[in-house]
Amino acid sequence: MEEHIVSSYDEELKYIMRRISEMGGQAERMVEQSVQALTRSDFSLAQSVIADDVLLDAAQREVEERAILTIAKRQPMAHDLREIVGSMRIASDLERIGDLGKNIAKRVIGVREFGLPIQLTRGIEHMAELAMDQLKDVLDSYATRDPARAEAVRARDEDIDAMYTSLFRELLTYMMEDPRNISACTHLLFSAKNIERIGDHATNIAETIYYIKTGQQLDDDRPKGDETPSLSLSAAGAAQG
């Protein structure tokens, strides 16, 4: 009887871990496709990304419900408890990544009627590549439970922040040079900010993986606040008005 209980418990853990991996794959696709839709003005692909967000939201709720039920039934200790609680945190970060991909897709309508300078398109693509590499690596580290790789992912977050700051300044220059650029550049600014936030959530996942495996928190040397530049609400409203 005890062997059956242990086997059933293991299956519950494996199911939660499998759903997290599936969520990770879907979040990757949403981010990749949203950036493709933005840079190629592909409205149909953007609509597909927006529709897919519902599936990711549902998966996040399922993981949370299964995790809570498992804790209530099994009362896990130590590593198993960290595994289950960590899965809820990771699912939440993946759901937020999906939201950010959806937000980028929604900007396609705003920019597709304007011709985007090739250097701005490349800037968005390059920044997205950095974020996607970070997301792929952190999902790989989850699959292998590799704390060293998770720590390396967190260390690369500054690269995305620096790229965002550079792109922010470049977009502001275009806006100041010609007011006709303001609307399209505002949409790109918000898209770039969403990509930067995707990197932040990948970093959150890396910290959770490290905690699951080691039982310790990574040294708190990340910036406490978001020091990357951002449009004010008033400026954004003026640009879109």
How are the SSEs ordered, and which strands pair?
Blueprint: H1 2-40, H2 43-74, H3 78-106, H4 108-111, H5 118-144, H6 147-155, H7 157-177, H8 182-214, H9 233-240
Describe the structure.
The protein has helices at residues 2-40, 43-74, 78-106, 108-111, 118-144, 147-155, 157-177, 182-214, 233-240. It has 241 residues and is mainly α. The protein has a single domain, classed as Methane Monooxygenase Hydroxylase, Chain G, domain 1 (Up-down Bundle), CATH 1.20.58.220. The N and C termini lie far apart (68 Å). The model is unreliable at 232-241 (pLDDT under 50).
Overall number of domains: 1
Q: Please identify, by name, the CATH architecture.
A: Up-down Bundle
CATH H-level name... which superfamily?
Phosphate transport system protein phou homolog 2, domain 2
CATH topology: Methane Monooxygenase Hydroxylase, Chain G, domain 1
Summarize the entry for a quick read.
The protein has 241 residues and is mostly helical. The protein has 9 helices and no strands.
Question: Tags for this entry?
Answer:
0% strand; mainly alpha; 241 residues; single chain; Methane Monooxygenase Hydroxylase, Chain G, domain 1
